[in-house]
Write a structure and sequence with these properties.
Layout lengths: L17 H15 L5 H12 L7 E4 L1 H11 L7 H13 L3 E7 L5 E8 L28 H4 L1 H4 L5 H9 L13 H7 L6 H15 L8 H20 L7 H18 L4
Antiparallel strand pairs: 1-3, 2-3
Length: 264
């Protein structure tokens, strides 16, 4: 099949309206959301949004979709391997058909992504772990910043401090409810499950009443942005309280900006 404009593939659409398409996607995710990691869900939703002109059909190179997602997430994107994992799972579960194209002068062209109706869904159970992410090839070296944890996380509760000292579980033991993207952002600085969970506690407390308005991917990448700004401020010696307190304030400010930017 030759590469072309999206108009050349409109006949592949299996939906009569955007409402029917959205209903199918909702039904699919209700059953299979658990089979995708957070990053894969971001990739899936980006492809869904890209399939609106001719309902359920998209034609684009993966690199183009990743670039768009990178811009939409304010510089925080997903990897190509994550996107490709999402495609494999979506195809196996029957929601997606992928057709390859070739250029008129030879060579591989873009893919055509075709979403299927509910009748095309398969009763498949994926064999890979639902929380599987790209494994770490080697354990990252803990920078000096982590050795200063007791200074950065001052507390008046000595029991909590002693508990933290005794907790030697690394980031791979972080609670499953914390997004993998956030764990990966914090891990190079604090490879300790309890510390990562302490950061996310601030995120949870600040957003628990607005999760029905702000989607999870926005919360996750705002938290990553806040963490990076906090580390930058620490390295420049601008933090006068604790790193956790600075992170909490930074996240709240960024989240307020995201919340009020949402159309009413």
């Amino acid at each position: 099949m030759l590469s072309g404009r999206i108009e050349d593939f409109k006949n592949f659409s299996q939906f009569s309206s955007i409402k029917e398409f959205n209903n199918t996607i909702e039904m699919f995710l209700a059953e299979h959301k658990k089979d995708f990691t957070t990053g894969e869900l971001i990739a899936f939703k980006r492809l869904v949004r890209f399939s609106a002109k001719y309902v359920g059909v998209a034609n684009a190179k993966i690199g183009t979709l990743l670039k768009i997602n990178h811009l939409k997430m304010n510089g925080f994107g997903i990897s190509r391997s994550t996107f490709e994992r999402m495609l494999r799972k979506a195809k196996k579960l029957g929601i997606l058909t992928v057709k390859n194209t070739v250029k008129s002068k030879g060579g591989k062209g873009h893919n055509v992504y075709i979403f299927n109706t509910i009748d095309g869904l398969k009763e498949e159970k994926l064999t890979d772990c639902k929380n599987q992410e790209k494994p770490y090839e080697s354990k990252p070296k803990r920078p000096k910043l982590e050795r200063e944890t007791n200074i950065l996380f001052k507390t008046s509760n000595n029991k909590d401090l002693n508990k933290r000292k005794e907790d030697h579980l690394d980031a791979t033991f972080t609670a499953s409810y914390i997004p993998k993207e956030f764990v990966q952002a914090v891990r190079p600085f604090f490879d300790q499950a309890s510390t990562i969970e302490e950061f996310w506690k601030s995120v949870f407390l600040d957003t628990r009443k607005i999760t029905h308005i702000v989607d999870q991917e926005t919360i996750t990448y705002t938290a990553i942005n806040a963490f990076k700004q906090s580390i930058r401020a620490y390295k420049k010696g601008k933090i006068r309280t604790t790193l956790i307190a600075f992170f909490t304030g930074t996240f709240k400010n960024l989240m307020d900006q995201a919340y009020f930017a949402i159309p009413g």
